[in-house]
Amino acid sequence: MWSVLSLIVAQMVTGINITGSKFLVTQMPIIALLEIRFIVGSLVLFVCIPFMQGKNSNEVKISSLKRHDWLILVVQALCAGMFFNLLMLSGIQLTSASIAGLIASTLPAIIIILSFFIFKQRITRFKALCIIFATIGLIAINGASISGAGFSALSIIGDAIILLAMIPEALYYVISKFKNSQLSPVKSAFLMNFINAIAMTPLMFFANWHAVFTLTTHAYFILFLVSISSALFYLFWFLGCNQVSAGTAGLVTAAMPISTLLLSFLFLGEHITPVQGIGTLLILLSIVFGARKS
């Protein structure tokens, strides 16, 4: 029960991340936003390590990790960190946070497809329904946008970029099957943020850092909030992912678009049309079918 709750919290803080970042990308460069997020997340988790040491006798130290473990950690970190966020924040500049959350609902379907190509896992009829419902849901979402008064070609491009961002995010979950190190959740979460902070360093020279020092107090608060959420996502995910099945973990990802929709409605004033609501329902059905055993 606590493991599932940890996964739900992880997805909910991702919703906070997307909603807060939608506001911040209009105030500061994406590169600066991400670098600050990963640095703050690393510092917070580093401080937490002494207070959250695991009691597992098989737990290893960071210094004891083998080359294979480091390779998996780096690839996982970059997929769910730098690659996913650069694409997500680039796309969210062109569309709404609520639509970004809806498109992110296709994550379980994309995980199924990648698992088929990487692990040769058979796509059952239930998983096929998952993919079909997700596709129809996406068409409904974007079809409503096209027919709406606020339609622009840029919004469709933004939707496409966000859908592309789901590929490295799905790879993060797929690659986790290769992980065999016994790092504690807090150490794993720290390394995820620290690796991304280092990877983003060369890009820092291309950001306009002057904008960071001209933010309002309100913007600074939101920046701190999304930075903490960067740390909490990995922490809560690692706390729960090793204790539940892959199907359950996939089903729990539904909490992310739901929280994003709610937060974007409450704090950004965004609305969902009835057709987009139907699209949301179809995507959620795809998650149910995707998590169901054949």
Largest sheet geometry? none
The tally of strands reads 0
Give helix % range.
Answer: over 70%
Distance between the termini: 24 Å
The helix count comes to: 12
Could you name the ranges where pLDDT drops below 50 across 5 or more consecutive residues? none
Please identify the oligomeric state: single chain
Mean pLDDT: 79
Class derived from helix and strand content: mainly alpha
Strand composition percent: under 5%
What can you tell me about this protein's structure?
The model has no long low-confidence stretch (mean pLDDT about 80). The chain is about 75% helix and about 0% strand. Helix 4 packs across helix 7 and helix 6 packs antiparallel against helix 12. It is mainly α.
What is the strand and helix layout of this fold?
Blueprint (H helix, E strand, L loop, with lengths): L1 H23 L5 H19 L18 H26 L4 H8 L2 H13 L5 H23 L5 H23 L9 H16 L16 H25 L4 H7 L2 H13 L6 H18 L3
Helix pairs in contact: 1-4, 1-9, 1-11, 2-8, 2-9, 3-7, 3-8, 4-7, 4-11, 5-6, 5-7, 6-12, 8-9, 10-12
Features:
294 residues, mainly alpha, 12 helices
